[in-house]
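Deviations from the work plan: none for this task. Representative record:
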Amino acid sequence: MITFTVNGSQVECSSENKKLIAYLRDDLRLTSVKEGCGDGACGTCMVLVDGKPTRACIPAVSKLAGKNIVTVEGLSGREKEVYSYCFASAGAVQCGFCIPGMVISAKGLLDSNPEPSPGDVKKAIRGNICRCTGYVKIEEAILMAAKFLRDGAPMPKPEFTGRLGEDFFRVDAGEKTLGTGLYADDMVVDGMVYAKALRSKYPRARILGIDFSEAEKHPECIKVITAANVPGNIKCGHLVKDWDALIAVGGITRYVGDAVAIAVTGTKQALDEVLALIQVDYEELVPLTSPRESLAEGAPKIHDGGNLLSLQTLKRGNADEAIAGSKHVVTKHYSLPVTEHAFMEPECAIAMPEGEDGLLLYTGGQSIYDEQREISGLLGLHPEKVHVRSMLVGGGFGGKEDMSVQHHAALAAWIVKKPVKIKFSRQESIMIHPKRHAMEIDFTTACDENGKITAVKAEIISDTGAYASLGGPVLQRACTHAGGPYNFQHVDIVGRAAYTNNPPAGAFRGFGVTQSAFAMESNLNLLAEMAGISPWEIRYRNAIRPGQVLPNGQIADDSTAAEECLLAVKEAYDRSPYTGISCFFKNAGLGVGVPDTGRCIVSVENGKVHIRTSAACIGQGMATVTIQMACETLEVPPDMVVAEPPDTARTPNSGTTTASRQTVFTGEATVIAAKKLRAELDNQTASGQTLEEALAALEGQEFYGEFKPETDPMGSDKPFPVSHVAYGYAAQVAELDDAGRLVRLTAAYDVGTLVNPKSAESQIEGGIAMGIGYGLTEDYPLEGGYPKAKYGTLGLLRSTDMPETEIIIVKREHDPLPAAYGSKGVGELATIPTAPAIHGAYYKLDSVFRTKLPMENTYYRKKK
Ligand code: FES
Ligand code: FES
């Protein structure tokens, strides 16, 4: 029996080999201690052991006899107040999964150094990865907390109007900072059992047989589930139903993440023991590990329909002729890598029977209605029988759009008739969910003697891996945005997405544009050189202005501020010799004629205004966005407004959190619904009632808002098709020192009407951190279809790697766009320009024109 102290109370643990994290989470139910990797690499499990920040996933309980452990739950009331206030005030909380660990590292620092320098703070949180914020606001929060704790000043009581443009505190900041907000893995349900899938041993192999007779003899085994047990359609997939929930005997696996069987056990610990007893007889087959191989004549078919998932073309004008007649022409081949989302919260879901013939799922995905549809198909149920509720989501970035754990948890719960939890280990997460597409791009760009772009021609081949996921639309966005935010009319882009036996690729912040932007922007620097002008100048001369026509044929609307973004970073560009620049754009919404709807119900309940929408908050602050939209419309204080979490029984389908769409689509749906309530409130108050009385009179009433703008499909014969309802624009300047160290990133953003300045800045900073990783450090090596990365080797940016940042929000004076008060969304655009800006800076520093990411032979990464 090991005795030690946790948060001031003496505790005893009899399982000496148990990891501290398991004891704290499972036995003591301390939910601030998060399990991000289980491997000492992420810092989400940070606790103090005798005052020293320590990763709780490392030590076994046997090493802790007599020690004093402190988690966020054990902070003093004053400390809790200070940290919650400072993290909210600084805008330091997004998905929140890293934040309690950050608080512990901060406390470890401030207890011994009450007046730290910014550098001290950076160092103190070096062991804590944050994938959302870029660390800037977290460091500000810790410095602010240090001051409050030093001075003993009373905590301010901020008063908010909740109106647009105000730094209204995120409504979830407090619970995320203190670790009381619940993510799926924080939930424990009476009678809950556990499940885990056995994955294919080979990327491509025929399953000849599955023998689980020994597995079912294990005392903790409740059931082994195979494809034969699936009651409905075994094929999943939001857009293309090609993803087998389980590979059946006789079937061929398509990647090493394919599930072959699912073990359901009474304890978590028994899962691997039971899986080890399942015998699978494979006939190993040669995998196809590149699109060139899979598209080659005679290649074996990965899916019945062949290996070409999608062919996309964007053709306007006559690019060949324009290129032939141009003064300067650049052609380059670019290789862009697979990247891993590395959201901090590994996938987790809990499913359980509900009522006589229904199912309830607690999830942390990007769309509860997609999950409802997939699961009802798998189980052969009417969708209304599948009730889906979202817990907090610890980051997604596109990587939680597809089924990962949800469908398996639902299947297991349906079969064993018990609550079932499935949680991915970090290694499973790295192996299984769809990644950013690797792309090979041949890119030709031409200009005249003045540096005016005349044409772009490109061929893009993307590796969509084993399953379609969102590979078609991702490729489409890579093509539609390849010409950049510039004004020229001859464009010829052909894209192909091919299935391979690599892990699937799907949505990832930037959605294909990250890749084609890198090619376009890098080529532009060479054209500038040939034309004898600077990289800033060539962008300025070509930047799209309102009323001009984008290469995809859409007329730029009045809000378009690409020019203003470039002007805003000009000084930063001219400041030092080693600066690189990039200017880009990104759509809001699915666009190109795809039905896309934002929905919201505003209801009056217990005297408060409830906003009900299924739009998932994956860190971007959806609840805060809808509250600010409602406050702006209703002119009521934010404490009278409640944003409900997504729940298929309460909140209407507002589509997936993808394509930077939610601020515009669900934002506008909220505005529409709130305007209807406003009209009723105005009627009541006009007759002399107070707001409270008016709300009481409307108790129980619901007001529905739906926003469903039309866009034109790809290949539309309209002369100027409207591909997307809105575009945001940005310019970034990267600055290197003589040693090649990235010292400053200046970013100017046109995001339309600002909803919450701090949130927007924090998203941009986080996007920049991700873009730096994409350009310089992140890698997801694959060998023969086998992923080789671990969380600690992904190359994720740490606090000490982050350069100084300056965020400039620019806006053109114009009549606001018609939706969501003119907001445009910023999620994806935050990442897109960073890698090409850094590329340009390195080109100036060492004259080496790099064509692969992550860039090699830099301060950050030596040549392999
Ligand atoms: S869970 Fe302990 S360091 Fe990641
Ligand atoms: S807020 Fe840090 S990982 Fe999401």
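The first strand starts at residue 2 and ends at 6.
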